[in-house]
Amino acid sequence: MEELDEDIREHIERETQENIERGMGPEEARRRAYVKFGNVRRVKEETRAVWSVVWLEQLWQDVLYGLRMLRKSPGFTTVAVLTLALGIGANTAMFSALYGLVLRPLPYTDASRLVMLWDSNRRTGLKHITVMEGSFPILASQAKSFEGMAAFTSADLEGGLLAARLWGTEERVAAAGVSPQFFSVLGVTPFLGRTFTASEGVATSKDNKWQFAHVAILSYAYWRQHYGASSDAIAKTITVNRFGEKRQYTIVGVMPNGVDFPYPLAPRKPDVWTNAALVQTSLGGNDLEVVGRLRAGVSLAQAQAEIHTIADRIRAKYPKDYKDEDVDVVPLSSELRRNVGSILWALLAAFGFILLIGCANVGNLLLVRAVSREKEMAIRATLGASRLALLRQMLAEAVLLASAGGALGLLLAYGSLRAFLALLPQSIYIPRLDSVTLDTRPLIFAAAFSVLAAGVFSVLPSVRLTRPNLNETLKSGSACKSSPARSVLRRPGSVLLVVEVSLALVLLTGALLMLRSMQKLLAVNGQFQPEHLFSMNIVIDNAYLNSLPENDNDSVRIRFEQFEQRVAALPAVEEVALADGFPPVPHPHSFDQFKADSGGGLIAEGFQPADEHIVTPEYFDMMGMRILRGRWLTDADRNGTLPVAVINEAMAQTYWPNRDPLGVSVEPKFRFTDKDISYTIVGIVREPKQFGSGQTPLPAVYLCSSQVPTAFGSAIVRTAGEPQGLAAAMRNAALQMVPGHMFVGQVETGDDMISKSSAQPRFTAQLLTAFSTLALLLAVVGIYGLVSYYTSRRTHEIGIRMALGAQRANVMRLVLREGMLIVGLGVAIGIVAAGVFARTLESLLYEVSTVDFSSFVASAVVLVIVAVAACWIPARRAMRIEPMEALRYE
Amino acid sequence: MSTKEQKKRIELLQGTLDLLILRTLLLGPTHGHAIAKAIEFNSDEVLQVEQGSLYPALHRLIKRGWVSVEKGTSENNRRAKFYKLTAKGRRQLTVETSKWDRVAGAIARILRPAEREGES
Predict the structure, then answer these.
(1) How far is CA A516 from CA A512, A522, B9, in A?
(2) ipTM at complex level
(3) Which residue in B has a C-alpha nearest to residue A35's C-alpha?
């Protein structure tokens, strides 16, 4: 076609040439050639029309015919479109969420070249350990496959108790310490001011004291909020109180909007970045998170290989302390996926099932319609319609349905996404929730889904219809042959229905598992009612601590005990616990480290990561923990008695896979006093999984606050009911601990706590319940529709049977038996599939096995009962058939 | 001269053109301009083809699979598209020709009944 222009030009050229040969002038020759050719534009249009008009017209006819057919059966059309809209809408919304949370690349230049570096331990098998401080400069300076490498620490973003004094009030500031190369690795430049200089990233030792600059860069949001977006902010100082120690940071720059790394790897967006000054002379501890930018063209494998050889060199330099360390290079994109719990995948599967069930239902409806249209199709085929034409007709109808469903689904997606985001408890920590929007990609996804759906549910009927056995169909009329039960499954629609039933069973089982898990949680936690919990952060400042005599370990402890008693005496307060941070915020890796003094195990030879929690004995009840072995901390564990520790199950399994850790003593890396104290393990506990992000818990050590001097912590209070004025009374009691030296945070209410703790499994359970109800409903509609349809097709046959003496009960049994055959097969397949699905829920389940017998049985029973009900109605209708009427039918 | 000549020429009926193209191509593959010339020449320049209308017709025939296209060079080494009769087109030509004969015969009988009687 595109050569048509050239063709015509060529033609005119020849004609002109001929005219010239006949003796015309060139001008005249050309003019005559054009006259003879006629209207060039019209010729082109007509030629193009040759190629386009036919299929366009055919399509138009198919569409018109399809619309007419759909309009003729409004019931069918409505059900089909609504079902599809539901499936497509829910899936589009879910995909939008997933895309925004996980798949959308981070907003940095060439984000695909950004990687994270993590230490791993070759002996314990632990991965994602923060990098050792002294190894970072070696890695950064020697690695040739990297354009740049930067260290940072997000520890202060979540657990740290930082407060900045602003206009006389203090508030928490989320700070990330970063090395000077940090911003250039990300490829961002400051909006105002500058980034950190190389010298600001180094700590120097002078007179046995570490010295380094204190400079800060503000985030765009923090700058707007607290400095009114004024450029005067540069060179101002910000006073940050870190664990009771005040430091003045000079503001040197402001980052542009959208720069918020290490978020979403770390749970919070930083308000400020401070300079991380590194000690370069010793190996130090595993303190650093490292981000790097690969050189263009360097593959991940190449970078990893080079980093391994550098790790070997570091090992040669520090043969003892670096013995088992190695360094892994992980793409940043996969880090994002790691942080999203299995909740999203489980939900995505649930949404997918709904769509599949929806498609199966619409497919069945189409199939049933197709069967009743067999005659029409046969006639059309006899009149000369080609197979292709019939197929095209079927596809046109399917595509019409799918587009209508898709369009409506899009509206639904928009609504349900907003509902999803609104329903999602505020502080279930899901990184990047703010970047979830319904943009072009999900729209493309919805369109693809519609087309796919149309394909799925039109394939079966089309295949069947395009092979019509004309003779058979035209002859048979509607007289039915009696069908033995075995042939039921050969009927069109039965297979889809079996699939539908099994998918519904899978969702139902998943929901039941989650519900049972919730039940167990509530039962185990008996007293754990987040609705009645309050918590508050308390810090005593360093001025007071420094004024205490060197070996005074009791003053602070006594102040905390007095505070505890004062709060316990408040009206409605049932129990008070103290912890060094509450509620525990899920973070992908540990910042604390322990070493075993004795008893072997994998932790014996060097410090290994393990979360440290300093708590009072009451904490156990508050958190709903369970003792697996030994005992929990008690009031008898005091200053002066044997220092004890309780470890969690994950710690026992990781570090002592083959031996009993009870009785072993462990030593924390960061000492609390000048003396080395080791703590003897007296118990192993299991924490409820709800406090994590749905991931396996990391190794953790619980120490008794009476045996560990701390000057900061969270008070957790359980109350009866919702007492008025408790928050103020708690704050008051805290401020009176050491008047004038207290930093007291806001009291967090039950709502905050719910969302931070048990909200996620509750939310998952609720969503799964909603979906399984929906699935069940769709399956029921499917079963009812198909059984009704086949029963009505057999009215004639049933009439004959009854005329020949069949009892009404026999007729009913006949209909029920056929329905049940389908349901039975669906249930059998569904149970197997549910077993697979349950495994994706494993990390979300508490104390419920993924092969929990009762859940599987219960869901099967529910499904069968509902299915019997769905068959019952058509069966009763069949039973009431009057033989004479039935025989006159037709 | 032009007025006189125009009167003698006959505008082609649509559809007849297809037949003429097929017939022309029976002699061998050739390019568009040559087809137009051949039709004019072989009908002693009585049949007036508006040359442009050749192209939609050619494409219609290509689409039906009666004519195929191949690229080549013409007598004086110019690049040109050659239209060629396919086997299907060849069959179609016989069908169309006999149809034309029947129609032409029928029309002739209607228009000249006397002559026909005379003949027989």
Answers:
(1) 6, 10, 94
(2) 0.79
(3) B50
